[in-house]
Amino acid sequence: MATQKEEEKLPLFETQQAKGRVLFRLFACTVFVGICFIWIYRIIYFPISSSSSSVARLWVWVVMFMAELCFGFFWICNQSLRWNVTYPHPFKHRLSQRYKDKLLPGVDIFVCTADPTMEPPTMVINTVLSLMSYNYPTDKLAVYLSDDGGSDLTFYALLEASKFAKYWIPFCKSNNIEPRSPEAFFGQDSNVQYAQDWLAVKNLYEEMKKRIESTIKRGAIPEDIRNQHKGFSEWNPKVTKGDHQPIVQIVVDGRDETAVDINGCRLPTLVYLAREKRPHFPHHFKAGAMNALIRVSSEISNGPIILNLDCDMYANDSDVVLDALCFFMDEEKGHEIAFVQYPQCFSNITKNDLYANSYYVVNKVELPGMCGYGSALYCGTGCFHRRESLSGKNYSRGNKLKLDNFDSERNDKRTVDELEEASKLVASCCYEKDTLWGQEMGLIYGCPVEDTVTGLTIQCRGWKSIHYSPNDREGFLGVAPNTLEVGLIQHKRWSEGLFQIFLSKYCPLLYGHGKIKIGAQLGYCAYLLWAPISLPTLYYVIVPPLCLLHGIPLFPQVSSFWFIPFAYVFISKNIYSMVESLTCGSSIKAWWNLQRMWVIRATTSYFFAFIDTVIKQLGLSQTSFAITPKVVTDDVLKRYQKEVMEFGSSSIKFTLVATLALVNLFSLVGAISKRIIDLDMNFQIIEMFAPQIFLSGLMILVNLPVYHALFLRHDKGRILPAVLFKSIVLASLACLIPIN
Ligand SMILES: O=c1ccn([C@@H]2O[C@H](COP(=O)(O)OP(=O)(O)O[C@H]3O[C@H](CO)[C@@H](O)[C@H](O)[C@H]3O)[C@@H](O)[C@H]2O)c(=O)[nH]1
Ligand SMILES: [Mn+2]
């Protein structure tokens, strides 16, 4: 047994390297050798020497080579994510022993919502309630809801939540239940041990939910409710989502001795914020909301630690705060850590992860890989920040986490009204004018992935960051897109924003040079280059099948030496990725779905993102942020749960998906039938075209659900006849392009 003195010296967290690192590195080197051979092959066998080569053939070959160079570089970036995988591990019992409640820092929790129809207020308050009932001293906890929808319905729901919290928090704590989102908790099987309590609280919850939902249905707050709280007076008929004064309402003041739950315990502070919006002021979407939250919270509670969450992401583990604090409060290394990111996990994933939203490998390998360089990505939600680093401060060795919320007497003594007035000032449109907010302070503006770019700038100011993925219980659970279209819109926003970063002054290779490790710079590129990698991908799924159709071989014969590197790279890469997925908790089917989603995303979302980024670089349009809806109709939900892909709209993305699937089908069928008719289906020809036949066959297998949706389904989620028609025309035209 360690003595107390020794115990006090033990670190609050330790890091562990992933097993098999040396083996992995050796393996990666062999694949790299294979890739080099592929490049060499493209140079040596350049078709200029053969007499049959036309200009078109030359170009086909040149672009093949360029595509393979791109894939090679992209592969290198992806290896650097795997080179240095490191798992941090906190010891929260040591933290609790060392720091009694009074010594723990204040934690301000930010929840962002933006639209009461796409993000229903009941969902939002479930998130808020799960956070209010954290196992953490309530006088150190403050929850802020930022409502970019500026909706009195959301405000009303929050008021209801603050009343229900008086029952909910003591119920959670005395029965030690998980998770603490009422909706998620009551959705589980009930526990007999506290059946009576359970039923009583459940009834309260259901009644509250009914009240909120009926008010929302009505579309307006009834007069009697409006009269119950002064806050409603902020909503006059002129207030709209995009045009209103700053609204700040301290719903629960944590300092108030009468703000207690039914057991007489203090409630955490709860604040509603709708920052000012005016038509001619850019509001910078979520980044703008977060910056307003940083300032408003600094007026009210000023906790040195900030946790930020999307409104659809509830707290799934009520002890998470203590885990996260271990990283910040470690005596040795804590002072250099700016943020601790939890993985994005979701509560609505289907059995085989139809739309590949689980990010198993990203969460268990790639992001811990970035953590190994001290540069874990900031992913926008489920992230604990040090207020200082988020607000723009540089790292310096002397930084110590301030444990005291209140930096001056002033804060403590102001009345609620005074705090609200002061907050409104900092939540106004013109407050940021001529300041560094959005550039050097707070979250960075101008990019739809404000999270990634902000994380990067924090790291370049000398801070380190942690990606912590707990083994037993997920820290947070969110809502993943449950239709194909929404998922593709999300990936378009991401890939577009990520590519913008690459092209901006924040490009990790330049901006990060000398500030973050080279592995981290390349690791960032593995994400930032999603949009441009669409070009070689499109090329690879279109040109080899067309060349097959027109009788142009693009790969070495199966019997030649040069076939070996192609086969080795292809097989080893895919087997590795499959095994990796399986060890991260995925299933074979889910891995297969991921392959399909990768092709679909790369050829649609990433491609359109690429085009839009180029247009934006030319200054022809403005940054936007397409919010992902979190609710769908029952019909759609049923298909999602049955893992039937949802098309059902005339989105141009679906035309592209269908066209690519048909190009491969037509080419393969066309090539085979042509040869059979020509009766020259000899062994040598098969050998020459085997790689292309294989590629098309693989694309066809990957696209089986697409053919199904094109030709066999009759439900509303099938591919619409108009899309079918367009894609048949386009695919046929593509097959007619003369390449020879
Ligand atoms: O003007 C806006 C737009 C969005 N949001 C909020 O931003 C969050 C994320 O929006 P969502 O539509 O759910 O996008 P996702 O693609 O699911 O979000 C992921 O990607 C975003 C960056 O593109 C990150 O900010 C998020 O944290 C990350 O979960 C939500 O809580 C919104 O309420 C705002 O507060 N104001
Ligand atoms: Mn979301």
Automatic annotation (TrEMBL):
<dbReference type="Pfam" id="PF03552">
    <property type="entry name" value="Cellulose_synt"/>
</dbReference>
<protein>
    <recommendedName>
        <fullName>Cellulose synthase-like protein E6</fullName>
    </recommendedName>
</protein>
<feature type="active site">
    <location>
        <position position="148"/>
    </location>
</feature>
<dbReference type="GO" id="GO:0016760">
    <property type="term" value="F:cellulose synthase (UDP-forming) activity"/>
</dbReference>
<feature type="transmembrane region" description="Helical">
    <location>
        <begin position="58"/>
        <end position="77"/>
    </location>
</feature>
<feature type="transmembrane region" description="Helical">
    <location>
        <begin position="554"/>
        <end position="571"/>
    </location>
</feature>
<feature type="transmembrane region" description="Helical">
    <location>
        <begin position="719"/>
        <end position="739"/>
    </location>
</feature>
<dbReference type="GO" id="GO:0071555">
    <property type="term" value="P:cell wall organization"/>
</dbReference>
<keyword id="KW-0961">Cell wall biogenesis/degradation</keyword>
<dbReference type="GO" id="GO:0030244">
    <property type="term" value="P:cellulose biosynthetic process"/>
</dbReference>
<comment type="function">
    <text>Thought to be a Golgi-localized beta-glycan synthase that polymerize the backbones of noncellulosic polysaccharides (hemicelluloses) of plant cell wall.</text>
</comment>
<keyword id="KW-0808">Transferase</keyword>
<feature type="binding site">
    <location>
        <position position="286"/>
    </location>
    <ligand>
        <name>Mn(2+)</name>
    </ligand>
</feature>
<keyword id="KW-0812">Transmembrane</keyword>
<feature type="binding site">
    <location>
        <position position="310"/>
    </location>
    <ligand>
        <name>Mn(2+)</name>
    </ligand>
</feature>
<dbReference type="InterPro" id="IPR005150">
    <property type="entry name" value="Cellulose_synth"/>
</dbReference>
<dbReference type="InterPro" id="IPR029044">
    <property type="entry name" value="Nucleotide-diphossugar_trans"/>
</dbReference>
<feature type="binding site">
    <location>
        <position position="119"/>
    </location>
    <ligand>
        <name>UDP-alpha-D-glucose</name>
    </ligand>
</feature>
<feature type="transmembrane region" description="Helical">
    <location>
        <begin position="22"/>
        <end position="46"/>
    </location>
</feature>
<keyword id="KW-0472">Membrane</keyword>
<feature type="transmembrane region" description="Helical">
    <location>
        <begin position="693"/>
        <end position="712"/>
    </location>
</feature>
<dbReference type="GO" id="GO:0000139">
    <property type="term" value="C:Golgi membrane"/>
</dbReference>
<keyword id="KW-1133">Transmembrane helix</keyword>
<feature type="binding site">
    <location>
        <position position="148"/>
    </location>
    <ligand>
        <name>UDP-alpha-D-glucose</name>
    </ligand>
</feature>
<keyword id="KW-0333">Golgi apparatus</keyword>
<feature type="transmembrane region" description="Helical">
    <location>
        <begin position="524"/>
        <end position="542"/>
    </location>
</feature>
<keyword id="KW-0328">Glycosyltransferase</keyword>
<feature type="active site">
    <location>
        <position position="451"/>
    </location>
</feature>
<feature type="transmembrane region" description="Helical">
    <location>
        <begin position="654"/>
        <end position="673"/>
    </location>
</feature>
